[in-house]
Amino acid sequence: MRMLVRREPFVREVAAWRNAMERAFEDAVEHAGYWDQPASWTLALDVAEDENNYFVTASIAGINPEDIEITLNDNVLTVRGETAAQAEKEGVEWHLKERRYGSFQRSITLPTPVDADSIEATYVDGVLNLNVPKVEEVKPKRIAVNAS
Fold this sequence. Notes:
It is a single chain. By secondary structure, the chain is of the alpha+beta class. The protein has one helix spanning 9-30, and strands at 40-42, 46-49, 53-59, 69-73, 76-83, 102-109, 120-124, 127-133. The strands form two sheets. A four-stranded mixed sheet has the order 1-6-5-4, with helices on one face. A four-stranded antiparallel sheet has the order 2-3-8-7, with no helix packed on it. It is elongated and about 90 Å long.
């Protein structure tokens, strides 16, 4: 027997577009000429889902896990933290300096309600993984047909 699942691709498209626009705006503000202040950068995320969970992954090597703050407010998941700049060495000429430092933050709106109390975060080898369970009422339900 096949199960019918209602899909709302437009909602996902709008959410993806909104996240892309937020990221573009944050990048534009970041490069607006504030070179004398510590850098602020947008954290790149991978977000996937299955029937029961959202999976969020971020590469943030070199950051102490205690310095990572993860919050969920009105279905908006926010990951923020800060990395320290390497101390400048006297008499050293830089040829290339691409590593990011300063504060970072990324917020995404999840398309369905989630169980905030069951979110799990792990940090292994510089990769942050979040397992964000969906609430029971948004999971697809199978309805049995009773024959008389």
